[in-house]
TrEMBL record:
Taxonomic classification: Bacteria, Bacillati, Actinomycetota, Actinomycetes, Kitasatosporales
SUPFAM superfamilies, per database record: NAD(P)-binding Rossmann-fold domains, Succinyl-CoA synthetase domains
Protein name from the UniProt record: Succinate--CoA ligase [ADP-forming] subunit alpha
Residues that, per the record, bind CoA: 17-20, 43, 100-102
EC number(s) reported in the record: 6.2.1.5
Free-text function comment from the UniProt entry: Succinyl-CoA synthetase functions in the citric acid cycle (TCA), coupling the hydrolysis of succinyl-CoA to the synthesis of either ATP or GTP and thus represents the only step of substrate-level phosphorylation in the TCA. The alpha subunit of the enzyme binds the substrates coenzyme A and phosphate, while succinate binding and nucleotide specificity is provided by the beta subunit.
GO molecular function: nucleotide binding; succinate-CoA ligase (ADP-forming) activity; succinate-CoA ligase (GDP-forming) activity
GO BP annotations listed: tricarboxylic acid cycle
Any one annotated GO CC term: succinate-CoA ligase complex (ADP-forming)
Family assignment from sequence similarity: Belongs to the succinate/malate CoA ligase alpha subunit family.
Active site: residue positions: 251 (tele-phosphohistidine intermediate)
Binding positions (substrate): 165
One Pfam family hit: Ligase_CoA
NCBIfam families: PRK05678.1 (NF004230), sucCoAalpha (TIGR01019)
Amino acid sequence: MAIWLNKDSKVIVQGMTGATGMKHTKLMLGDGTNVVGGVNPRKAGQTVDFDGTEVPVFGTVKEAIDKTGADVSVIFVPEKFTKDAVVEAIDAEIPLAVVITEGIAVHDTAAFWAYAGKKGNKTRIIGPNCPGIITPGQSNVGIIPGDITKPGRIGLVSKSGTLTYQMMYELRDIGFSTAVGIGGDPIIGTTHIDALAAFQDDPDTDLIVMIGEIGGDAEERAAAFIKENVTKPVVGYVAGFTAPEGKTMGHAGAIVSGSSGTAQAKKEALEAAGVKVGKTPTETAKLARGILGS
């Protein structure tokens, strides 16, 4: 099993005909992802050849769903057009929209996040500013390298793209059920808590790795959720122990004010909930390995 993405998922790519969309559509197809169409109103009716695989281009998300039965959209649209693209996906009621684009204005993200709620949350949003989601051996939606791990029984949820890749590689001999990069912007769709709940309910996930970072209180809220609701072992890592106070570090949401949002505060909250927290990604992987080995 897996969470939210599997071999039967039918994927469309909003922005497929752009340079980034073309590059990653080819890589996703190479990983076995069932890409059934692209969306670009200016190129509707055309097809794109990806090494012998012909992928049709549709004018709208709704048309793509009607013609292909698509249930996942991955969005590579430039930031100034991303809000409209996500709203279109929400209006079409696609079950999962994975927003890869970075640099989106916070008020745009707030707008489409609120719009999804107004529409009944029929569309799960992952991102923005995220690497996507992969169920190894089944489907890969986004920009996560598909060749750095294998199918297994670890669930991974992470704010950081590069730390997602590192953890997948560190534990490649054990493998992953699903890895989800939720993004590091101040406002995101799917949260640590959403992924933790899904992994808790997935019978083929035995252990959860959670990667957080400085800024905000998402990790503290996740710790409270773990304490009350998660019975599976959880291993954590929090990036940013050496970050200077008051500086935005990398992600737009990674900003610390006083003691609020510090790596130490998050580490303490997680450990109080029974989570083993590593000081480095490699130590975190060793903690996971030790738990599974026992």
